[in-house]
Write a structure and sequence with these properties.
about 325 residues, 2 domains
Length: about 325
C-alpha cells in the first residue's frame, strides 16, 4: 500500500497541510478497508500525516496497522482512554497546519474527498467544521445532521419517537428531510464519524472533553465550535461510507448513549433544567424498557444509577 504522501512521516519537523486522526479499539476486522482508502482520499493535498491512536486493543489492531501501513503515525495507548482521550492524544502528536480530519476507523472516505473538505474551509473563514455526506453500505444517504438537545426535543422524542419527532424542528434532534442535505447546509452538530476541522477553530476551542468516554463528545465539541463563532458546513461533494448501527443493538453502547446525553445537557445547563431533562430521559428509556427492549432496559438502569457504570465496562 502506498503512503498518502512521500514527504511527511512521523519524524517530519514541520506540520503537514492536513492531518488525519483515527482512534481504534479492537478494530482489526475493519481497519484494513479504512487504511487502503486513505491514499486516494488524500490525493491532491501536498503534505499529509495519518495518526492512529490505538486504545489498548486486544485483537492485534495496532500490530496490523504497523504491518500494512508503516507510513502511519501509530500511537499505542496502554489503557483505553475513550474516544475523546484518544483524539487528544492524537492532537498531541501533531495537527494539520490547514486542517485536521477526525475519522472513525469504520468510516471509509471517497477518493479525492479530503481536498473538497479543505477547499470548503479555506474559501470561508467562518467555517470551523465541514461535515461530509455519510453513506450507508449501499451508498444511500444517512441522516447525519443534528439539532442541539433541548427539553422540548427530549419530550418530543419520548412521546413521538425519534423518527416522527424529527419531522418538526422544535421536537426532534435529527434532521431527516433529504432536501436539507445540500451544499452549504448547516446544523448545530453532525455525527462524529467524519469531521474535518479548521486549524483556527481547533486553536480556538482546544482539546476534547474527556469526561465523555464514548458518545456526545462530538456534540460537545461541535457546540463549543459554534459557541466560539465557527459554523458547520455540510457538503455532499465529499462522501464517507459508514454503515454503523452498533449502538442500537448493544445494551452497553445504548446505556453509554443515554448517560452521555445526560452528561452533555448537565454541562450546558443549570441543575433545575438538568433535573427535568434527566426525568424525561428516564421516562423515555423506561417506557421502551417496559416494551421488552434490552438496550433501553440497560439505559434506564444506567440513568437511575442502579446498573454498573457503563464507562467502567469494556467497549466491545
Amino acid at each position: 500500500m502506498l503512503a498518502p504522501t512521500s514527504n511527511v512521516d512521523s519524524a517530519h519537523s514541520s506540520p503537514p497541510d492536513v492531518g488525519v486522526i483515527a482512534v481504534t479499539y479492537n478494530a482489526a476486522a475493519i481497519i484494513e478497508d479504512f487504511l487502503r482508502a486513505l491514499p486516494d482520499a488524500l490525493c491532491g493535498i501536498d503534505s499529509t500525516a495519518v495518526t492512529i491512536v490505538d486504545n489498548a486493543s486486544a485483537d492485534g489492531t495496532a500490530d496490523l496497522v504497523e504491518r500494512i501501513a508503516p507510513w502511519v503515525r501509530l500511537v499505542r495507548s496502554d489503557v483505553n482512554l475513550g474516544y475523546a482521550g484518544g483524539i487528544n492524544l492524537g492532537y498531541e502528536r501533531g495537527l494539520g497546519s490547514r486542517g485536521t480530519y477526525i475519522l472513525n476507523p469504520d468510516a471509509v472516505p471517497a477518493s479525492g474527498s479530503v481536498r473538497v473538505l479543505l477547499d470548503v474551509i479555506e474559501r470561508d473563514p467562518t467555517v470551523g467544521v465541514v461535515a461530509p455526506m455519510i453513506q450507508n453500505a449501499e451508498g444511500g444517504l444517512k441522516f447525519s445532521l443534528r439539532r442541539e438537545p433541548t427539553l422540548l426535543r427530549a419530550v418530543g422524542e419520548t412521546v413521538l419517537g425519534g423518527h416522527r419527532a424529527a419531522r418538526f424542528a422544535p421536537l426532534g434532534d435529527m434532521i431527516r428531510d433529504p432536501t436539507a442535505y445540500r451544499e452549504g447546509a448547516t446544523a448545530d452538530w453532525a455525527t462524529g464519524a467524519a469531521m474535518f476541522l479548521s486549524r483556527q477553530a481547533i486553536d480556538d476551542v482546544g482539546l476534547w472533553d474527556e469526561s465523555f468516554f464514548l458518545y456526545s463528545e462530538e456534540t460537545d465539541y461541535a457546540l463549543r465550535m459554534r459557541d466560539a463563532g465557527h459554523r458547520l458546513h455540510y457538503t455532499p461533494r465529499a462522501a464517507v461510507q459508514h454503515p454503523g448501527g452498533q449502538m442500537s443493538r448493544s445494551p452497553f453502547l445504548w446505556s453509554l448513549v443515554a448517560t452521555s446525553r445526560m452528561r452533555l445537557y448537565r454541562k450546558r445547563h443549570g441543575p433545575v433544567r438538568s433535573a427535568a431533562y434527566w426525568a424525561i430521559l428516564v421516562a423515555n428509556e423506561g417506557i421502551r424498557a417496559a416494551m421488552g427492549r434490552p438496550t433501553h432496559r440497560a439505559a434506564f438502569r444506567a440513568l437511575l444509577g442502579i446498573g454498573e457504570d457503563p464507562r467502567a465496562q469494556p467497549t466491545s
